[in-house]
Q: What sequence folds into this?
């Protein structure tokens, strides 16, 4: 099984495990007695926008086949089921396992057949829809989403010396989109803890761009695991 398909399988398995675990806890925690207590004050409902904080901001950590990334995500509650989601993140991009080896002649570490260092800065703006399930725990709130994704790409010709590469760097612009599935955890409208599985599609066009010689990259996106931690305001 290739690394790409293993990564997708792992992502889906992790999300399924978290979903089932939280659902099982919600069933075990149900009160089976006949005594019903009524809250002295009404609970805050998501469809009553006057009682809740409508905005959130969070730090996003990402993991993909190209390594790790970091970014910022913001959300605006539009209605009971819809949120506006926007933000950005920074990550490297490569299409193969790139291992540095010690070069005895140059007395430094280098990656064989490497042509370019590639770094990406995607911006996302999209709509997120809540998925409603009967008897699902309120601490587990799944959703799906789509987003437009313009992207800045920083290309540095590989010379095994990062600081000498900067002067020859080139900046590119590409545009694409993103689809994702995920869930928010914890009590609604308090701390923001969100997990997503994303697929970003940002085509380079033409024959692609090389990170390793003869292995051009044609999609600057890919599959990402995302964890966002933040707060409402």
A:
């Amino acid at each position: 099984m290739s690394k790409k398909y293993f990564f997708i399988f792992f992502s889906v398995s992790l999300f399924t495990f978290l979903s089932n675990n939280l659902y099982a806890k919600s069933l075990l925690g149900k009160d089976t007695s006949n005594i019903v207590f009524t809250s002295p004050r009404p609970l805050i409902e998501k469809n009553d926008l006057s009682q809740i904080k409508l905005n959130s901001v969070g730090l996003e950590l990402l993991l993909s086949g190209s390594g790790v990334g970091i970014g910022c995500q913001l959300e605006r509650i539009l209605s009971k089921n819809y949120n506006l989601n926007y933000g950005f993140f920074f990550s490297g991009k490569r299409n193969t396992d790139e291992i540095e080896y010690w070069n005895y002649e140059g007395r430094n570490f280098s990656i064989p057949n490497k042509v370019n260092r590639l770094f990406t800065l995607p911006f996302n703006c999209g709509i997120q829809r809540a998925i409603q399930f009967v008897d699902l725990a309120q601490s587990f709130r799944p959703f799906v989403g789509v987003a437009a994704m313009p992207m800045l790409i920083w290309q540095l010709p590989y010379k095994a010396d990062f600081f000498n590469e900067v002067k020859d760097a080139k900046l590119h612009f590409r545009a694409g989109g993103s689809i994702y599935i995920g869930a928010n955890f914890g009590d609604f409208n308090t701390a923001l803890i969100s997990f997503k599985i994303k697929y970003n599609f940002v085509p380079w066009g033409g024959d692609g761009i090389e990170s390793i010689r003869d292995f051009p990259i044609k999609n600057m996106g890919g599959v990402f695991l995302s964890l966002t931690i933040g707060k409402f305001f």
Observations:
- The CA atoms of residues 195 and 227 lie 5 Å apart.
- Residues 22-30, 39-44 have pLDDT under 50 and may be disordered.
- The longest strand covers residues 140-157.
